[in-house]
């Protein structure tokens, strides 16, 4: 058994592809780690939010005007619209919002 030109090219292509995927995965993991680290640093990463709704389902939705969203990940920041939320979700440290220390779980009635 020996490797001819085409099969070694093929192997090279597979290796390059794997490297490419590894790099993508590494970058995704790094981004996810950085995103999660925002919380470890005491800032909200705005990982969840609810939009305006009438009638409101959640108490916090009473604070909203149509189109707005409110962060439910801990900071209660009000976002002007979906785009505003996505922008802050993508880069929470562009406009860091400190999490309240030892955030108590909201009381449920
Ligand atoms: Zn938030």
Structure keywords:
109 residues; mainly alpha; three-stranded antiparallel beta sheet; 2 helices
Q: What do you see in this structure?
A:
With 109 residues, this protein is mainly alpha-helical. It has one domain. The protein has helices at 5-40, 82-90, and strands spanning 49-51, 69-71, 78-79. Strands 1-2-3 form a three-stranded antiparallel beta sheet. The longest helix is centred in the first third of the chain and has 36 residues, at 5-40. It is elongated, with a radius of gyration of 22 Å. The protein starts with a helix and ends in a 19-residue tail after the last helix. The mean pLDDT is 89. Zinc ion binds at residues 44, 46, 71, 73-75, 77, 97. Residues 44, 46, 71, 73-75, 77, 97 line the site of zinc ion (ZN).
Sequence-ordered SSE layout with sheet pairings:
Elements: H1 5-40, E1 49-51, E2 69-71, E3 78-79, H2 82-90
Antiparallel strand pairs: 1-2, 2-3
The protein binds zinc ion (ZN).
Zinc ion binds next to loops.
Quickly describe the structure:
With 109 residues, the protein is mainly alpha-helical.
């Amino acid at each position: 058994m020996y490797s001819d030109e085409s099969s070694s090219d093929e192997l090279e292509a597979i290796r390059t592809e794997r490297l490419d995927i590894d790099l993508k995965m590494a970058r995704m993991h790094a981004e996810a780690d950085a995103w999660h680290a925002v919380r470890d640093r005491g800032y909200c990463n705005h990982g969840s939010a609810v939009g305006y709704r009438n009638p409101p389902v959640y108490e916090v939705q009473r604070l909203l005007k149509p189109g707005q969203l409110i962060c439910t990940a801990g900071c209660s920041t009000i976002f002007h619209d979906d785009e505003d939320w996505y922008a802050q979700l993508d880069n929470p440290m562009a406009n860091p919002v400190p999490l309240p220390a030892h955030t108590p779980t909201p009381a449920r009635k």
